[in-house]
Amino acid sequence: MNEFDDRDLIWQRSSYCDTSTCLEVAFRGDEVLIRTTERPGDVIVATRGEWQILVAGIRDAGDFSL
């Protein structure tokens, strides 16, 4: 994870988030930046392709079921 300057980014979070710890994403060129509201300075950087694979896996509950 990287300490990140996000002044020019637009962070988005799910409308389903109703707790103090939520996942946020921002898009910058071909990168997707991922962080939690609990630790906004720690950012994971992924490619759009990696992001699409993650989202598809989450939508297909079988890939991430507990």
Helix content: 10-25%
Mean pLDDT: 83
The largest sheet, given as strand count, sense and whether it forms a barrel, is:
5 strands, antiparallel
Strand order of the largest sheet: 1-5-4-3-2
* Count of separate structural domains: 1
> Segments where pLDDT lies below 50 for 5+ residues?
none
Dominant shape: globular
Class per helix and strand makeup:
alpha+beta
**What proportion strand?**
25-35%
Radius of gyration: 12 Å
H-E string? EEEEEH
Q: Whole-Å distance between the termini?
A: 25 Å
Number of helices: 1
What brief labels describe this structure?
66 residues, alpha+beta, five-stranded antiparallel β-sheet, 1 helix, globular
How would you describe this protein?
- The chain is α+β, with helices and mostly antiparallel strands and 66 residues long.
- The chain has one domain.
- Helix content is 18%, strand content 33%.
- The chain is built from one helix and five strands, in the order βββββα.
- It has one helix at 48-59, and strands spanning 2-3, 12-13, 23-28, 31-36, 42-47.
- The protein has a five-stranded antiparallel beta sheet with strand order 1-5-4-3-2.
- A hairpin with a 2-residue loop joins strand 3 (23-28) and strand 4.
- The radius of gyration is 12 Å and the shape is globular.
- The relative contact order is 0.20.
